[in-house]
Amino acid sequence: MAMREIRVLPDPVLRTPCEPITTIDARVRGLVEDLLETVDHEGRAGLAANQIGVSLRAFSWNIDDEIGYVLNPRITELSEDEYQDGDEGCLSVPGLWFPTKRAWYAKVEGTDLDGKPVVVEGTELMARCLQHEVDHLDGYLYIDRLERSVRKKAMRTLREQL
């Protein structure tokens, strides 16, 4: 296992949709180990594979002292009437936090390293994490979901940092 370096904007891997995992081999097992090791630190809620430079559909999470992973995740359910609008940040956009509207509840389905079905669901922080990480795997960042005026401020701040 290895703690991997986090890729940050403007790294193009963060804007590239990740490929499905078709074969579970030593490379994928190593990726999962690295995702679990790298997310297991204070202040880290989730980590997508492309954030460590691997364009495969996998992510790990670290919420309420529970650490896990899912391969080929897809969102299968979101609350339609209940939302949360708290501040959100990202390891790949360090130091910036902006109010981001997300569904209050989310459900993700995928597989584990044995190819068995996995269902991960939750509310509040877990729901935010699931939506955030699947967005990463689709080539999106949370700043893409910001309301126009907030996104304009975020982009200005990013340009100043680069």
TrEMBL record:
Any Pfam family hit: Pep_deformylase
Q: Please indicate which superkingdom the organism of origin belongs to.
A: Bacteria
Q: Which residues bind Fe cation per the record?
A: C90, H132, H136
InterPro entries the UniProt entry points to: Peptide_deformylase, Peptide_deformylase_sf
Q: Which GO terms describe its biological process?
A: translation
Cofactor requirement: Fe(2+)
Active site (catalytic residues): E133
Q: Is Hydrolase set as a keyword in this record? A: yes
Enzyme's top EC category: hydrolase
Q: Please tell me whether the keyword Hydrolase is annotated for this protein.
A: yes
Name the job this protein performs.
Answer: Removes the formyl group from the N-terminal Met of newly synthesized proteins. Requires at least a dipeptide for an efficient rate of reaction. N-terminal L-methionine is a prerequisite for activity but the enzyme has broad specificity at other positions.
User: What is the protein named?
Assistant: Peptide deformylase
Per the UniProt record, the source organism is: Flavimobilis marinus
Gene that produces this protein: def
